[in-house]
Automatic annotation (TrEMBL):
PROSITE patterns: DNA_PHOTOLYASES_2_1 (PS01083), DNA_PHOTOLYASES_2_2 (PS01084), PHR_CRY_ALPHA_BETA (PS51645). It comes from the Eukaryota. Keywords: DNA damage, DNA repair, DNA-binding, FAD, Flavoprotein, Lyase. This is Deoxyribodipyrimidine photo-lyase. Belongs to the DNA photolyase class-2 family. It is an enzyme of class 4 (lyase). Its cofactor is FAD. It catalyses: cyclobutadipyrimidine (in DNA) = 2 pyrimidine residues (in DNA). It comes from Juglans regia.
Length: 497
């Protein structure tokens, strides 16, 4: 059981509220203090990373070296080449930067983290393990098992470097909606939305031998195994690319695209009206705190756009983490509010105009051209527009035999094709659309009950539906053409060799 009692504030340059003690060493070491290991997984960056800052700080205080370990979960929750390829390319850059700028080794393990991490801690005689925070069940279970397996000489600290206000600080309970958590988060922002300290290399260097990683071979193998969902070209991985998307001089969100954010973000025909930061936030290649700090600096230029962006970046993202952290059934009908479960069950046997299988939905074989377009955008582009994701999930509820099936299919498709799948935001997005989480009851109607309803006619009133369908057809056509050209080029190379 994690404890909120953490190292006293004078023992670390990271705020004590950001750290939870998962395990306290129960006996002292006979010799020198062992190394500090940072097990990185959710926050895959060097810059603006409170967990890395804490690991280096604790290492310096104990005159101990620091290493970063990463465990590659093979096809974690259905991830394919699209997601793992993006992640590994970012990690390859990270390793080079980490070893060059901070002289900290980066060790990549493959297999079950419950085994690889404790084994490494034992081999190097570590005294402290620092880990990222994630509210997802699989990660929580993994940490519990690691706590059981490590030596009594090891302390384990969990650091929330993903949220601006740490999840357990923002609220100690499951929040009902954005309205109930907004004030709590805003109250703590002055304390937590602060500048980051300058990161310095550890005072004691790592001297143990470390295995090198064959990045090119590893990436090629992952791309081959997950080829069913290929990589996308529109977002370049890594910390540098993430900062370019945020504040770049060519097409950065805050420097070039901010002005139209409030008006354009709900128009599926204007994908560049969005920040385009979600892949980087999901993989932790950029800090939400950095995004907020940079946005506040330009607030005078576009106050409404910045306020809207900060609401999404802070309140909505942290509400999603709150839900997944405090609601164990965050991807199940069991996790819905009682009123929503009742109304969905009351209407579970209502007659549906259409019933589609998972395979038909995955192949965009429905009678609704708008829905088909949104599904194809996700399959080929790796990112469905946020407005369309609501419509898309609600139609799945309308076209399947039961709400449980609708939720299962929506999560399956989201996690398989979205570059930022397997994320609290994705689970909450599906739960909001299908199970009314963080929403209220609306006028009762067939199939939906009191769950908020969306339809084709409503979309036509909000944006150019025909234009969006045409845009998606062009997108799919261009993607298929590039793939064909790439395959042809590859065949030519093989013939020449």
């Amino acid at each position: 059981m994690a404890s909120l009692s953490s190292p006293p504030s004078n023992s670390t340059c990271v705020q004590s509220g950001r750290i939870r003690v998962l395990k306290e060493r129960s006996r002292a070491s006979d010799g020198a203090v062992g190394p500090v290991v940072y097990w990185m997984f959710r926050d895959q960056r060097i810059r603006d990373n409170w967990a890395l800052i804490h690991a280096i700080d604790q290492g310096n205080k104990a005159n101990a070296p620091v290493a970063v370990a990463f465990n590659l979960f093979d096809q974690f929750l259905g991830a394919k080449a699209r997601q793992i390829g993006f992640m590994l390319r970012g990690l390859k850059q990270l390793q080079g930067d980490l070893e060059e700028t901070l002289q900290i080794p980066f060790l990549l393990f493959q297999g079950e983290a419950e085994k690889t991490i404790p084994d490494f801690l034992r081999e190097c005689g570590a005294s402290l393990l620092v880990t990222d925070f994630s509210p997802l069940r699989e990660i929580q279970r993994c940490k519990e098992e690691i706590c059981k397996r490590v030596s009594d000489l090891v302390t384990i600290h969990e650091v929330d470097a993903h949220n601006i206000v740490p999840t357990w600080v923002a609220s100690e309970k499951l929040e009902y909606s954005a309205k109930t958590i907004r004030g709590k988060i805003n109250k703590r922002l002055p304390e937590y939305l602060i500048d980051f300290p300058t990161l310095q290399p550890p005072s004691r260097k790592w001297t143990r031998a470390t295995l090198s990683t064959d990045w090119d071979g590893l990436i090629a193998n992952i791309l081959r195994k997950g080829a069913e969902v290929p990589e996308v070209e529109w977002c370049e991985p890594g910390e540098k690319a993430a900062m370019e998307v945020l504040v770049g001089s060519k097409n950065g969100f805050l420097t070039k695209r901010l002005k139209g954010y409030s008006a354009d973000r709900n128009n599926p025909l204007k994908p560049r009206g969005l920040s385009c930061l979600s892949p980087y936030l999901h993989f932790g290649q950029i800090s939400a705190q950095r995004c907020a700090l940079e946005a506040r600096r330009v607030r005078k230029v576009c106050p409404q756009a910045v306020d809207t962006f900060l609401e999404e970046l802070i309140v909505r993202r942290e509400l999603a983490d709150n839900f997944c952290f405090y609601q164990h059934h965050y991807d199940s009908l069991k996790g819905a509010w009682e009123w929503a479960r009742k109304t969905l069950m009351d209407h579970a046997s209502d007659k549906r105009e259409h019933i589609y299988t998972r395979e038909q939905l995955e192949k965009a074989q429905t009678a609704d051209p708008l829905w088909n377009a949104s599904q194809l955008e996700m399959v080929y582009h790796g990112k469905m527009h946020g407005f369309m994701r609501m419509y898309w999930a609600k139609k799945i509820l309308e076209w399947t035999t039961a709400p449980e099936e609708a939720l299962e299919i929506s999560i399956y498709l989201n996690d398989k094709y979205e570059i930022d799948g397997r994320d609290p935001n994705g689970y909450v997005g599906c739960m909001w659309s299908i199970c009314g989480v963080h929403d209220q009851g609306w006028k009762e109607r067939p199939v939906f009950g009191k769950i908020r309803y969306m339809n084709y006619a409503g979309c036509k009133r909000k944006f150019d539906v025909d234009g969006y369908i045409a845009y998606t057809k062009r997108l799919v056509g261009e993607t298929k053409k590039r793939k064909a050209e790439s395959l042809q080029s590859q065949k030519v190379k093989e013939l020449r060799s």
